[in-house]
Amino acid sequence: MKYKILLLCSLFFAVCFFVSQYCYINRSASLPRGIYLKTSRAIAKGSFVVFHPTAAQQPLVSKYVKNTPLMKRVAALPGQAYRLPPASDTDSKGRVITPFSPKTGIVPSAQFVVIGDTKYSLDSRYLGFVPQSSIMDTITPLFVF
User: Fold this and answer.
1) What residue ranges do the domains of the chain occupy?
2) What is the C-alpha separation between 74 and 43, in angstroms, rounded?
3) Under CATH, which number does the domain 26-144 receive?
4) With contact defined as beta carbons under 8 Å apart, do 39 and 136 qualify?
5) How does pLDDT run across 16-65, given as a tens digit for each residue?
6) Burial of 139 (0-12, 13-18, 19+ CB in 10 A)
């Protein structure tokens, strides 16, 4: 019995270590909720990325999350034309939020357009472009629900 408990505890700690070192957990509605595995893939249109908001983006982001990287899908790469999906003038709690402008154009060099799955997602509709230097990892779904 002692060995079974020891084995279960060891397995639990091994899984926790693996997740903390090699995965991200998404609890927001901006992408499907679940566990995402870090990858070494190049950033491509449709990739999932994890990024820290820039200093200019931080005042807006800090109203919603504290010291948390954001996870979004890449909608446009540097040099590509983009058209942002419709944005809301209020957030999910009815507070005023200012959408990014321009809504269409060409993505600047070393910048990306990122989009979440909900109209309230803190993405390029509100934050604008995400610099490549802010992107920490590319990720792929491991277990989503």
Assistant:
1) 26-144
2) 8
3) 2.10.109
4) no
5) 777 778 999 999 988 999 999 999 999 999 999 999 999 999 999 999 99
6) buried
- pLDDT, one tens digit per residue, over 7-25 is 888 787 777 777 778 999 9
Rg of the chain over CA atoms, in angstroms?
18
Distance CA 73, CA 144 (A): 15
- Residue in this structure with the two tokens 């990306």, named with its chain if needed: 112
Burial code (b: 16+ CB inside 10 Å, e: under 16) for 80-110 equals eebebeebeeebeeeeebeebeeeeeebeee
Best CA proximity match to 74, nearest among 134, 28, 33: 134
Beta strand 104-106 pairing with 135-144: unpaired
* Amino acid identity for residue 15 in this structure: V
Which of 121, 61, 122, 125 minimizes the C-alpha distance to 87? 125
pLDDT at residue 18, rounded to an integer: 73
Model pLDDT for residues 103-132, shown as the tens digit of each residue:
999 999 999 999 999 888 999 999 999 999
Contact between residue 71 and residue 26 where contact means Cβ atoms under 8 Å apart = yes
Asked whether the predicted pLDDT for residue 81 surpasses 80, the reply is yes
